[in-house]
Amino acid sequence: MQDTAVASLFSNIWLWQGVAGVLAVAVILILCIQFVNRSSDFPICPSLELCPSDWLYFQRKCYYISESEASWNSSQSFCSLHNASLLVIENHQELSFMMKITKQDPWIGLCKRNEEFFWVDGKALDTTLIEVKGSGNCAYLESKGVSASGCYLTRKWVCSLNIGLSG
Prior knowledge:
The chain is α+β, with helices and mostly antiparallel strands. It has 3 helices and 9 strands. The protein has 2 domains: 1-42; 56-162, Mannose-Binding Protein A, subunit A (Mannose-Binding Protein A, Chain A, Roll), CATH 3.10.100. The protein is 34% helix and 23% strand. A 5-stranded mixed β-sheet has the order 5-4-7-8-6, covered by helices on one side. The chain has a 4-stranded antiparallel β-sheet with strand order 1-2-9-3, covered by helices on one side. The N and C termini lie far apart (65 Å).
């Protein structure tokens, strides 16, 4: 009697595993069909290869965090060679994200012209977003915010590259 109960239990387990397998395949097929039929104007998620290799993706931008050190100008030249610029911070979320992931106070794309700070894209610094400490002409990101020092000093740097998601 006990052997038939065990055999019955095992046959039920195989049945349920088979049903679960069929359901899993059905769900995957439905998701694939929906993905294929979706309008290209509304991508389900960004492509996995939006950014160059070794770059990070966050909020429609790619970021490169250097391993080596260079002056501010050399850092900007490196970024330019990759169709990017030193980091331009556009909002509080981006500032917070970069402060969490960067270490060793990297250069960013902010420098002083005529006693005022400007981003490398030509926009004036929004002092409600960032206040720059220090007396130098080139800015870097540190754990408590943004500071400035001599542009000739060598630091790590962060490049940013805007990604246009078009359908």
